[in-house]
Design a protein that fits this description.
Helices cover about 65% and strands about 5% of the residues. It is mainly alpha-helical and about 260 residues long. It has a domain of about 140 residues. Strands 1-2 form a two-stranded antiparallel ribbon.
Length: about 260
């Protein structure tokens, strides 16, 4: 391979590693968002299931590893260190295999995940108290902003322990349909209505939440595909550059 081709390959590999570093930062940032967010549907699942927390830790780990690999790939490309380029190729291959395996598992377990999510939400509605709990207030926020009530339908709230054992006409305040007559306009907790016809939304939240998840899955899928493309290009360029380097020259390694 000519010196011009080597130089082009080297700087292209540096560019792809820079992109790989950025994509890794995005994945890690998404994992941190999943772990610490308390204003979206993800927060509802945190307290009832460890699956989301485990997934967030995996995303943070993969993102951190991707950033590290991008950094070392940049060094290996600029200084033409064969051992770093070989290590970089091997790690990229392992990461790509792990990503494909995880994607296949999630695809074939999607019905089970949907069933688990439904049980989590229904269980949260049954035990809802309206106290200062992140999951409950997040669910109130979802019902209020998506203009829905309950999971499958408002009938899910009839299973709530407090509502079931009360002699008053109670309903979730966040289900309040402002277009209907009434006095209570609270954001969280349980409200009292004088008549049996409650001023609430009639549509369940499952359709809106599924749409929200699908929209976010598209973003996640786009990021993962982008990362996979960068990984494949990085593997190809690293092998081309590694083959072009005739011998090791450790004097090129920067001294600190």
């Amino acid at each position: 391979m000519g010196k011009g081709c080597i130089a082009v390959t080297k700087y292209f590999l540096f560019l792809f590693n820079l992109l790989f570093f950025i994509f890794g930062a995005l994945i890690m940032g998404f994992g941190l968002w999943v772990l610490f967010d308390n204003q979206s549907f993800i927060a509802v699942l945190h307290e009832s299931s460890d699956t989301v927390k485990v997934a967030s830790y995996i995303l943070i780990g993969v993102g951190s590893l991707s950033m590290a690999m991008g950094f070392f790939g940049c060094i290996g490309a600029i200084y033409e260190i064969r051992c770093l380029l070989g290590l970089y190729f091997t790690c990229l291959l392992l990461i790509l295999i792990a990503q494909v395996t995880a994607g296949v598992l999630i695809y074939f377990q999607r019905d089970r995940l949907k069933y688990e999510m439904s049980n989590i939400i229904k269980g949260m509605i049954v035990n809802y108290t309206g106290q200062n709990r992140t999951t409950e207030h997040t669910w109130d926020y979802i019902q209020r902003t998506m203009k829905c009530c309950g999971w499958n339908s408002p009938g899910n709230w009839t299973e709530n322990i407090i509502i079931k054992n009360s002699t008053q006409n109670l309903y979730s305040c966040s289900c309040r349909n402002e277009t209907r007559p009434g006095t209570d306009l609270k954001d969280v907790g349980l409200c009292i209505h004088m008549s049996a016809e409650l001023p609430i939304y009639e549509m369940g939240c499952i359709s809106s939440v599924e749409k929200w998840l699908l929209d976010n899955c598209g973003v996640i899928l786009g990021i993962c595909v982008g990362v996979a493309v960068v990984e494949l290009l990085g593997m190809i360029l690293s092998m081309c550059l590694c083959k072009s380097v005739v011998q090791e020259d450790y004097t090129k390694v920067p001294k600190y």
